[in-house]
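Reopening closed ticket. The problem is back. First fold of the pair:
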Amino acid sequence: MSWNVLLITADQMRADALGCAGNSQAHTPHLDALARQSVRFANHYGQASPCGPSRACLLTGMYLHNHRSVQNGTPLDARFTNLALEARALGYAPALFGYTDTSPDPRGRAPNDPALRSYEGILPGFDPVCPMLEDAAPWLSHLRAQGYDTSVGLRALYTPEAARHDGELWGPARYRDSDSDTAYLTDRFLDWQGEQGDGWFAHLSYIRPHPPWLAPLPWHDMFAADEMPAPQTRGSLEETAALHPWVAWRLANQTRENWVFGRSLDPANLSRAQIGQIRATYAALVAEIDHHVGRILAQLRATGTLERTLVIFTSDHGELLGDHYMLGKEAVFPQAFHLPLIIHDPRREADATRGQVVSAFTEAVDIMPTILAWLGAAAPGQCDGFSLLAFIEGHRPDGWRDAAHYAIDFRDIALGRPERFFGLPSEACSFNASIDGTHLYVHFAGLPPLLLSMEEGAPWRNLALEPAHAPLARDQAMRLLSWRMRAEDQTLANLLLTETGVVARQRNRTPDSA
């Protein structure tokens, strides 16, 4: 039997955006139904932000401190293998619909190589069947063919119509729902998949619900702004800024543009109406994604293909949506990293766990080893993640991790803004974080640590600065250090040159608890 693989990512989707995750206001019937026939991982975390670094983690199976593609535009070292290359070695021709935001390694390239003028490269190994980069060129061609005036430019097309209802701050998109970027990419995938036999491998990378936040009708009208839940804030803006110098700096330096084209929004001081409209539009974009995932699943079912296809639905990173007075995904708070993960394994071995929810901490770096294990291949030595097939087959591996980890490298190579503000060298502008069931610990390379209690009703202050909590902060720091040391690049460390040749020790593929 020839197996198929479909990896779907929805850019900037939070874990709690789905109805199956407990969101009573979400409209995600197709993903909820998929979860009932799959395993949903409730404590799944991405490892980095923004898009380029997070996708490098997902597609190489490596932590940020190992692959070092730390910003959008920071090259990904060409020596690393990746999911697409490994699948190609197994006889697949991995197809890409969308983007990977892979900045190519400039070494060995001519200085004037056009590939070095954009961070939006395609991960080596993928066949870009329908690339959708920031210029959205194929989509614009489609819109022109449908009679839209694309001479006004992409930004104008992404600017919403005027408000049509009382209390509405902005209206729907200027294009029909059947012509949206999400619909277009889905159509191209369905056309391609319909011509395939078995033995295909595809990565469908949606831009939504990433900003700019506008949705076409009827999705725009699905949610009322004044009925959306308020953001999660555990203290005032001033109390949140007082948590840590970097948190204060981020709050003061959030962009006011690009969330909704034609609108200026101050993330730290959103009105109730503004945040309601943002959340309503975000929920609408999630509902639209769900609809089109439903179309894909329907085609796979109708052709009998779903029973031979591993389907994975996840995201690259999350979104604050006004939580803690922030928009976007560059923050210490878990909303920027907590992601949906649904894995539908059609094998008989997965029948006993259909509909189950796994509460163990899983990470984006686990996706590549999981797919390769499902295809019967070993994960390459560079991988920091671990296969999730044991969970899908009904048991928890011994020594599984007891925390999730994520990181941001906030250096600014072009302008040096945080470097100047904090008086730090670029290599000190980063943090590693671990989150367990009770605490979030954030260790900065050049700034004080941050320790927050995640328990409901706990004080909203930095416990790392309080003498009474010094033992707890010490233990958290020691645990994070131990994890970081074990998670260093092991590519060559387990090889030894001897008189009889190269001796290799197989890397332990179980993540011992810290």
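Second fold of the pair, where the issue appears:
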Amino acid sequence: MSPALFSPTKFPPKKARYPLKTLPRNQQFSRENSLLMSDDDYDQKESIAGSDIFGPEDSRVLVPYGGEESGYGDSLYIGEEDEDYEEEDVAIDEEQLGPEVDSFARYVDLHRRKPDDDSRESAFGLIDGFLKDTDDHFHQAQGRTAQYSGEDDDTIMDMMGETAFYKMEHETWNLVSRLLPERGVEFTHTLRTVSEYESNEILRRQLLDESPTFRELNIIREWLRVIAPNPDIPNEDAEDDEVMGSGHMYTLNALKRYKRDNMDPAEFARKGPNARFEYPERGIPSLEDKSQLINTEMDPDGPIRQERNTAEADNYYDTTFYKVLWGYIRKGDFRQAAEWCRKCDQAWRAPVVLGGRDAVDWVIDEEVADDEMYDASPQQGPSGNRRRQLWRRACYALAKRGSKRPGELWERAVYGLLSGDIDSTLPACENWHDHVYTQVNALIEAQYEHFLHREGRVSSQVLKLPVPDVTTLGTHNVVAKIVDSLSRPNDFRFAASPQNTALRAVQGAIISNRIPKLVGIFASQLREFRRNPGYEPEKDTNTPVDCTDWKLLRIVTHLIIILQHLGQWPESGPDADAAQEVIAGYIRMLAAAEKYGIIPLYAARLSRDRCVEVMGEVLMHVTHEQTREDIIRSFRSYGLDTQATLKRAMENAFIQTEVFYKHEELPIQILSEFSLSWQDRRKVQPEDEKLIRTAEWMLHVDEMREDLIHAGVMMFKRFYLTGRLDAARALSERIPSSFIVSGEEEDHDDLSEETQKIASVYIEYEFLIEGLDALDEWSKLLAAGTAAKREGGSAAVRRGKLKDELQAAYETAESKLGLLVNSWLVQCQHHADAEQVKHIRNTYVPDITIALHNVHVAAGHHLNKSYYSKCLDLAVLVAKPSSGVAETFVATGRMAKYVDELANVSLMCLQAAKGASLEPTLVKPGQESKVSIWNVKPTAM
């Protein structure tokens, strides 16, 4: 008894669901290549065609369609009603992905072969490559934007959006390069006792070694400084530089004019150089508004002491000065900030800006004095601030001092940044990064000062600034609380494009050390999207990230790969599963864009089972032969399980196309199909093509001959049970039995005995196509011969040639159809799929028998009347119990029709029997032959 390879699988009926005609904005998939969609809701009618899934050890595997147990519900197939189906439609185009898809893959491939002990080095190489790549793309996008000379607003906005995205992505990889390699690294520096005369800078460096939180905060602050834009210094014309270099010019001019108008010349002449003009204590009227009084003392503390403002015309100077100064300090460029103060005639502010540097003496603090941020040298002597805490308190007092000057907001923000105060700085923050910087900077100052206090460098009396208490924030959630406070869904302070908002979420996950949570969100979205194609991630109010934002998916995928190289990602557990889901989603995205060449590279990062599952989906969509060969080579190069993957792909194809192979209980009239022209016959359908092209994969792997034989038999059954003769012909042409089983007996030694039996079944199924093709050739020549007879005597030579061709076609058709009637699938009626075989024989054998009967009749009419007798020979075969042909007629209720056909041919034979010769071969030229079977001589009694 053969194994249960051919018996049907029946599934409970489900509610039908067909492909959606419209998809959400980011879900631009073609119907054929929608790899992120599932089809576990499709209608599963009970069908005798069945889902014959072949498994290991030649045993059939019953896999429930869809649902949790199958694991194969990840592809959307085509409904027969979808007339707009295009086989080669690309679901995602190149522009949606960006050129970095290929370049990132090159870096991943370059560093994948590193041995385990160089894994961190591989991570560094990947980070450097991604950083360089995105920087190049950013500058290229900038160049395209600058060179564009058109006036299409949409194009301009797209270019600006592209430039902004690449800029922010480069900033993201910059953060990765600074922060991730530092995590998980234990510092082994010995903390020594710092003497009373040594700089606090030494203690600060010891705190960096001792506290991972403080170290990460400093890295984040430095990153935020690096990515901050340069201050926007006005330089529209020469007057701007002159105005900024002249200080409060209009106030000075107002004082000079007031002095000139109000001084007593005689008194000045009498007193000489000792004469002094006294301005009113209340101030002098402003030139622009006489009701407004301006200060009369121009020393740095004059406006504060007099509680007066400068002239209104100096508002531009004040606002610009403080705003640019804020920009330099926000960027951490304190030297340039000091230079800006000197340039703007406020040199006295330069020491204030530079006051945040701890004092360093070259002789005492040699180990830190060579830092580039210090000006210390043997010639210059000590540098920096030995009373930094007092300086902070002074800056804090200035930040809290209120005034009505135009530049007050920026002035307070400057002093707020210097002192580490949050409240006075936030009003000047223009974006998300500014807000994060303000709070991180405050935390750094607080933790540093608490550490100095612990070390006895700061007295309790000095600790009077209201700074955050870092001891209550824990060691890992400090930045997380900051990020969460800036990530509320109803917070509209940071309006930006969806992509930039999502990148902020990625950056927030990185700096708050919650990348696993981000990956988990992506994984959850991908699962939900595959479960429910109507799901729209961009409308999910819980998170700004969207799993169908392909560029974002690329970033998160490569972030996972870097963490894996760094040893910062678990190899098992929920986080590992989420990472697998995200990488699988990236692979599906690449497949939707037909980026098949780089898919195996990422598939190699999946577990063996997951790789088989995902690639089993992807390979069904590959049609180009050269691409198949390249993928097979890549599979071997990356050590992927080729055979298991191809078997899974075949299983998926059988499952996903199951719904299409339904048939009526009554047999199909095959002859009616063959009476149609080639153009009118039913063509190979998309589901047929999916099955055949998936099976073609196995032609590339010699070890899969047995699997291919089993799959081929299953496909033939499906095609024949549903009358898809052109599909069966395509299968026999593209995967002929000669490709699988050669005619040499010794070439079958590697096939098991059972597989050899199945191979013989494959050949028998294939033989039906040969017989039907022979019948088709006979029918075409018969039609041509009939037409030639109507042409008359002018085509005698052509008619003679056609008759010879018709004779050859008859012999071929008679031979092949005769074998089909006599023995086709007879030996298979004892196999486990006997019901299916019986149905196929009932469907085809009666039609083939009648077709052969009609061939004999036509041959008797056009070639030689002796061929009428072949019909009676055929009737003897039909009636023979061992042939089983009569059973097929009875089972399908067609015996009466066949008997009528026999009655008709019997009359023909009687009419042709007059003057019959003994044998047709003895007929002389010009003499009509007679059917010898009717040349009966009575026997004497």
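Update: turned out to be a display glitch only; the data is intact. The radius of gyration is 44 Å. The longest strand covers residues 284-285. Please close again.
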